Amino acid sequence: MHMADALVSPAVGGTMWAVAAGAIGYSSAQLKRGNDQRRVPLMGVLGAFVFAAQMINVAIPGTGSSGHLGGGLLLAVLLGPHGALLAISSVLIVQALLFADGGLLALGGNIVNMGIIPAYLIYPFCYRPLAGPAPTASRRSAAIMIAALVALQSGALAVVLQTTLSGISALPFATFALLMQPIHLAIGLLEGVVTAAVLTLVSTARPELLALQPSPSPAGLPLRRLLVGFFAATVVIGGLGSLAASDRPDGLEWAIRQVAGSAELANPQHGLHQVMATVQERLALLPDYGLRQTTAQQSAAGPSDERWGTSLAGLVGGGITVLFLSLGALLLGRGRGNP
Amino acid sequence: MSSGAIFGSLLELRQLDLLASGDSVIHRLDTRVKLLAAFGFILTVVSFDRYELSGLLPFFFVPLAVCATAGLPVWLVVRKALLVLPFALLIGAANPLLDQTVQLQLGTVGISGGWFSFTSIVLRALLTAAAAILLVAVSGVPAVCEALARLGVPQPLVIQLLFMYRYLFVLAEEAVHASRSRSLRSFGRRGMGPGPFAAMIAHLLLRSWERAERIHQAMLARGFTGQFLPSRRCRFGLPELTVLLLFVGGCLLLRLVNLPQLVGAAALGLFQGVV
Amino acid sequence: MNHPIVAADQLCFSYPDGTVALRSVSFRIRPGESVAIIGANGAGKSTLLQQLNGSLTPTTGQVRIGDVPVAPATPQEVRRSVGMVFQQPDDQLFMPTVYDDVAFGPLNLGMKGADLEQRVCLALDAVSARHLAAKPPYRLSAGEKKRVAIATVLAMDPTVLVMDEPTAGLDPYGRREIMQLLSTFDHTRIISSHDLDMVAQVCSRVVLLHEGEIRADGAPGEILTDTALLADCRLEPPLSLQACCVCGR
């Protein structure tokens, strides 16, 4: 479920960063206030544990494919929401820096989808109410299963939303959602089963590990603050972003233009396009959304015709640049002595 | 990932850290400068519009120059940057299918916008990945974390990053041992189902928890009271600021002025002049 | 100087799950002594060591360091004077670099600047690890890790050094390095170990634990040659004191 930088526009990426930063600041402050000294090594070690666990393939029975443990929900149960958010964030940050598992721009979004959603939304609002104050093993397992399914679906939906709003990938909302949600149903099942099993095993060996964390009461939850922060950030960054952005409309602008009504052009009659058009029309929430994207782009690209006129020059110049780059790389590689 | 592959990627991780202990002008720079420069680089690259290709190309000179100045092996950086390709290809693959409107006509061949945006996605992914890799290769993860702390990132998160990174290798090694011993006893049946996996990581979890308790005892034994105190001094003065501004300024310049296009136009002009 | 620096009086300890680990353990250790705590696995060695710096609190009985009783109310003083080196150095080296790890203790004691630098360098020099200062812990060999772990404790300037299995897992050269190091210290040393050959060379007194009780407390020459006693406690004499495998003497 990691998003890559390529998917995310600066506006959306920046907004997600703001949300993630706000949440991390909040959880840091909460942890400092609590001053539970044990948590420092515990969060660090459990973060490393989740990192290591994520590297191992789990075969999904019956499908022949494999998946990985996410760990957000597990950490939330063991560390509480604040500790879990920091732990998951640290895992994602190191993954982004070192393994190119998603990019640095998309990091904010990844922290939101895989950290904030399980720790601050699903754990207090879904798992805790279902599990109750002192759950039996079976009740806890059932609550985990449901929570995991909801968490993965919400996360997947968030990815689709963020990608579509970014407008970089030409995949229409409905198609993307149709791809993501069923896959993440299977992943959610896996996550739920594994998390529940681990918690059961751990509670048998050392029940005191699962002593319930004090849950932030819904009234004191940062949800309201998060939402306010989100909207404020969107307005500021979106405004700044559109000032600096090119004249290509981004997904949001495009949607607004659609609602306002712009001239519709006929679809190109290519086979694949036609098939996808029919599929989308049957299933899409906004039937016009996917189709019109390309054609609207054409109309939007109209005023910048001169860009395409000079793009031949761009191609030639680009070729020359690549030539120089290759030369440089070759010389560098030769100079260092190849391993 | 098989246990061999896990170990493999861990060793590569160590390779990056090893590179960070080198000595060059770039290595000696305050990590905050490098962090902010990488940030600026990524932001600039990402701000291009979806069809932009030629404007992105000059940015590839930056990783090249950094490798040259800092004495880093280009092949390693390239290899790690290429790891991002599968994601980019997957995401961008739909674009040529969905965006068929021809944007550029080359004689009888029409190149659709979809191909432009697909290639742009790939290039951008490579550049941003390279930026992150180089940042770590010239600074090391601990230095980056400390730079973050000095730039205002909350201390709990920085400490979390440092601790997690410290015990990453230890725990990954334990995970490898556990999964290896398990696969040795499973006689060729491929893949680990959720049940055995859960048992294995529950075991790992308990050991991790006990390790954390021992670490906590060690910290208390050396007088830990909850606060981490800085032990080193760092310089961020005028020279550092100048370097940063020059770099970011250069990136902005490349963003606003499409160098390859100018070069290409000049070349075409020359060609036409000759002909 | 007969005043004991470490004194245990009728020490008893049981774990939360009911396991009795120590039964009425009493001893007196004088300053500068080098004492080995030996015994089979599960005899209570690690548990006893953890009573000495306050990591565990006795169920009944008392431990005194100098004149200060080890109690939950006096952690700082105890921590300062008793330096504990763990069996697993990874548990003790948790900072990004060796320098940071060695500086951690003195920093928490309030040292800064040039004083701090000097303390760290002294500690690293004492274990011949100055050249490792900038390295991250995961890049050290097992022997180097042990030495650095000792340095982190030395930097606190303790009066008593407590060490849990210092030579475990080391190659012969690393083991020899540690043994030489231990011989050079003039701190009071309390060492728990299975390595009876090391004990024979390094320690001047041996305390034999069996099932939580002290079975013997005296000179290594007496206890380590008493084959029957050792066998009763699931131990053997050190190889250097056993019959020669070539000629049988």
Summarize the structure.
The complex is a heterotrimer of chains A (339), B (275) and C (249). With 275 residues, chain B is mainly alpha-helical.
Keywords, separated by commas or semicolons:
heterotrimer, A: 339 residues, mainly alpha, Arp2/3 complex 21 kDa subunit ARPC3, 2 domains, two-stranded antiparallel sheet, 12 helices, globular, C: 249 residues, alpha/beta, Rossmann fold, 6-stranded mixed sheet, 4-stranded antiparallel sheet, 10 strands, 33% helix
| Helix fraction of chain A by DSSP (H/I, runs of at least 4) | over 70%
Number of domains of chain A: 2
What does the largest sheet of chain B look like?
Answer: 2 strands, antiparallel
Question: Are there runs of chain A of 5+ residues with pLDDT below 50, and where?
Answer: 215-221, 233-310
Major β-sheet annotation of chain A: 2 strands, antiparallel
SSE order of chain A: HHEEHHHHHHHHHH
Q: What percent strand of chain B?
A: under 5%
Unreliable residue stretches of chain B: none
Strand content of chain A: under 5%
Biggest interface pair, counts:
A-B, 112 and 123 residues
Helicity level of chain B:
over 70%
The overall average pLDDT of chain B, rounded, is 80
**Helical run tally of chain B:** 13
Estimated structural class of chain B: mainly alpha
**Computed structural class of chain A:** mainly alpha
* Rg of chain A computed from alpha carbons, rounded to a whole number of angstroms: 23 Å
Structural features, described:
The complex is a heterotrimer of chains A (339), B (275) and C (249). Chain A has 339 residues and is mainly α. The model of chain A is unreliable at 215-221 and 233-310 (pLDDT under 50). Chain A has helices spanning 10-34, 39-54, 72-98, 107-131, 137-166, 173-205, 223-244, 251-260, 271-283, 289-301, 305-309, 311-336; strands at 58-59, 66-67. Chain A is built from twelve helices and two strands; from the N terminus they run H-H-E-E-H-H-H-H-H-H-H-H-H-H. With 275 residues, chain B is mainly α. Chain B folds into two domains: 1-151 and 234-262, no CATH class; 154-223. In chain B, helix 4 packs parallel to helix 8. The longest helix of chain B has 30 residues, at 155-184. The mean pLDDT of chain B is 80. Helix content of chain C is 33%, strand content 24%. Chain C has nine helices and ten strands. Chain C has helices at residues 45-52, 75-81, 98-108, 113-126, 142-154, 172-184, 196-202, 220-223, 227-232, and strands at residues 6-14, 20-29, 34-39, 60-65, 68-69, 82-85, 160-164, 188-192, 205-210, 213-218. Chain C is globular and about 55 Å long. The N and C termini of chain C lie far apart (41 Å).
